[in-house]
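WP5 quarterly update. Target: GPI-anchor transamidase isoform X1. Source organism: Glossina fuscipes. Length: 360 aa.
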Amino acid sequence: MLILLKICLIVLLATSESYSEQRTYSQLPAKYVESVQRSTHTNNWAVLVDASRFWFNYRHIANVLSIYRSVKRLGIPDSQIVLMIADDMACNPRNPRPGQVYNNAKQHINVYGDDVEVDYRGYEVTVENFVRLLTGRTQNGTARSKKLLTDAGSNVLIYLTGHGGDGFLKFQDSEEITNQELADAVEQMWEKKRYNELLFMVDTCQAASLYEKFTSPNILAVASSLVGEDSLSHHVDPSIGVYMIDRYTYYALEFLERVQPNGDETMAEFLKVCPKHACISTVGVRKDLYKRDPSQVPITDFFGSIRPTEIITGRVNITLADEDFAFQTLFDSNNMEWNIAKKSEDEIQRNFRKSFQRKR
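Structure tokens (predicted):
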């Protein structure tokens, strides 16, 4: 049997050497492929939070659903988006269009859509659950969809909207998370290798105060208003009697709607989407913790999740090193068979003897 095994291995090795590889490359813009290859992350996640309740805060749900729609369109799957909504405007009895949420009075886009997956809803949206989510300390029995399963290769987008003040953001109009608590949670994420780079984006009054305490590396932060400034709404829909969306998120969405999954827009462009004459408030940006130049960072590094793919129709030889012996794995994509070739005859015999002795 051993002789037969050796003969098979020799034939397989000879076949692999004569097998020609045929490769088909995806047709992506060269600039996009080059920028992605420079990126240091391997996956993307998004944590999107609307922290306020009640009908008159309709715009906050429109805010978060607008960002949700954009990141999903650009490639981040629902399995890697954690959506927290403190109230359900789509089913509110005051909503004249049940099951629908719009971010514009002209009703161009129903941001609630047909496939929104809300992970934390209503009274589940609490400071405790939000901090547990970020730090990976969810309680036993928590559903997989309610966990942030990131690692050291993850680029994470955290988007917050609601009512805030100097150094805090209100949750459910009953509790607050402070900027120090946010900084501590992000520090734990870094220490536990739960992110590679982090984009912190917040639309609320005095929003810039929420990133003041950050000290962890690889964080890029943008806020809709500076300390002492209010973040204003954009326009009202007379038919429902409430504001539809906040100004900063409105212009951010306007920019994101023009972005394609393989586009060449950069984070530097995104940071300028809402000048003061449009936002009324002053957009705050913090870049001192971020080591890369935003003008060289594709916007899809945080808002998308599409990687250049190389399709190989031939056989791939992979050499794996080991202390005792090296072996070569040959994968034939045509018949889906795995063939393993040991490095030398002596090593094959030695391992065979060890296996035989253990069985005895």
